[in-house]
Structures are given as C-alpha cells and as structure tokens.
Amino acid sequence: MKPPSPPFHILCIEDNPGDVELVREALSEFPVALELTTVANGIDALAFCRAPGSCADLILLDLNLPKMDGREVLAQLKNDPTLRHIPVVVITSSEAERDLLQTYQSYANCYVAKPVDLHEFFTVVQEVVKFWLLRAKLPPRPEHCDETREWDVVGETNNKSITDRRQ
C-alpha cells in the first residue's frame, strides 16, 4: 500500500519532552514523508486542531496533560463534527481500567500503555504509526487541509517536516 500524499501529518499531544523526543526519533526512521506537530497541553492541542489550515491524519494523545487533560481533549475532538474523523491513539502511562473504559467510551481508536523500556516505547510508536499510515484506510482529508497553516514549521529533516509548539 502507498502512503498518502501530501505527507502524513501526526499531531503528538504530550507534555513529557523525553517522550516527545522518542516519538520524533521513532518517526525519523520512516522511509516516507511525515509531518509531526507536537503540543504540550490540551488547550494548545484543540487550538491547533481548530486553526485554519491545520489538519492531522493521526493524533497521539497522552491522558495526563496540563491545562486540559487528554480525556477532555478526546471528548471535545470526538464531539466536533469537523474533527471526529481523525483517529486518536491514546498512548499513556495509565494502566487504570477506568481510563481504558473512559477513553473507549469517548471513541478513542486505540489505547496503548506506554512501555517503561525505551526500546519498546520506540517500537510501539513505530507500529502504531505504521498501522495507521500503511494499513488503515482513512477518509479523504477535508478541503480546509489545503489552506495555509498558521503554525510555523521550524525545521526539516530527512524529508519530514518537524513542527513544534511547546507552551
């Protein structure tokens, strides 16, 4: 299967800089163009998703976030008719059954407990993204995704745009 064109855009909502760096490293090994945007809290995540021209093909969401936690972000994403089509993979340190049930009841597409081992974490991120990038059939991108983005691209590496917004 061929990956989508233009580049597959991943929004990583994660407040731990170490985990963000592991996600970035895991994605740098993909042989296709990927675009990664990172935000460190729920408020910025929703602002990004709702900004003109912003578009994500996949969201990697931590539950324990500052300002607005991942549970509320997930609920707002899935209650918004313009955003609910975006697959949301919860990647969190929580293994609580309550969190698992709540996220699926809020229409998360997947729930993954963060492995403690760094190599396993790296592998999990790659496997999740590989599934959504190459195996899953996603709906067409909305037309507004072709508009100019208001968020700045701060660097490019190996044909992958890396966009960061940390607050």
Structural features, described:
The protein is α/β, with parallel strands linked by helices and 167 residues long. The protein has one domain: 3-Layer(aba) Sandwich (Rossmann fold). It is built from 5 helices and 7 strands. The chain has a 7-stranded mixed β-sheet with strand order 5-4-3-1-2-7-6, sandwiched between helices. The longest helix has 18 residues, at 118-135. The chain is globular. Residues 147-167 have low confidence and may be disordered.
Helix share bin: 25-40%
Describe the largest sheet: 7 strands, mixed
Average pLDDT for all residues: 84
CATH T-level topology: Rossmann fold
Number of separate domains: 1
Overall outline: globular
Q: What's the CATH architecture?
A: 3-Layer(aba) Sandwich
- Which CATH class is shown? Alpha Beta
Number of strands: 7
Percent strand equals: 15-25%
Number of helices: 5
Describe the secondary-structure layout.
Elements: E1 8-13, H1 17-28, E2 34-39, H2 42-50, E3 58-61, H3 70-79, E4 88-92, H4 97-105, E5 110-113, H5 118-135, E6 155-157, E7 160-164
Parallel strand pairs: 1-2, 1-3, 2-7, 3-4, 4-5
Antiparallel strand pairs: 6-7
What descriptive keywords fit this protein?
seven-stranded mixed beta sheet; single chain; 20% strand; Rossmann fold; alpha/beta; 167 residues
